[in-house]
Amino acid sequence: MLRSQLTDALKEAMRAKDQTTLSTVRLILAALKDRDICARGNGNPDGIGDEEILGMLQSMVKQRRESIGMYEQGGRLELAEQEANEITVIERFLPAQMAEADLAAAVDATIADLGAEGLKDMGRVMAALKERYAGQMDFGKAGSLAKAKLNA
Asked: Does position 141 have pLDDT exceeding 90, yes or no?
């Protein structure tokens, strides 16, 4: 489903001569192709699934947010703006992000489901969250919430 959305977006950007969207979607498709090649090498002939694509998109957004901070520190505001525009394009393909209250409820529910009791269970909790809520939550925030709850 995401693959067809990406190719449709590429075609639409070409028709509209929208260079920002076009270059960003091309970057996404190149990264997707790279991951598909790795997946085929690991015995998955169909490439990666939608959940992995969502994870890839989230990591692309995270990378761009980090770049924005670096560019702003370096006084390169035009490059920071370009990265922000790319984030806007990438986020079109991600589901709506969870609100803070929903994120906290999801972390609580996952901890309860797994019977996690301490920081030693942090890896299991985060793996379960990534499996259940791929593309729907900021795992940086979820990780700090889970750590605080498991530490208590």
From this structure: no
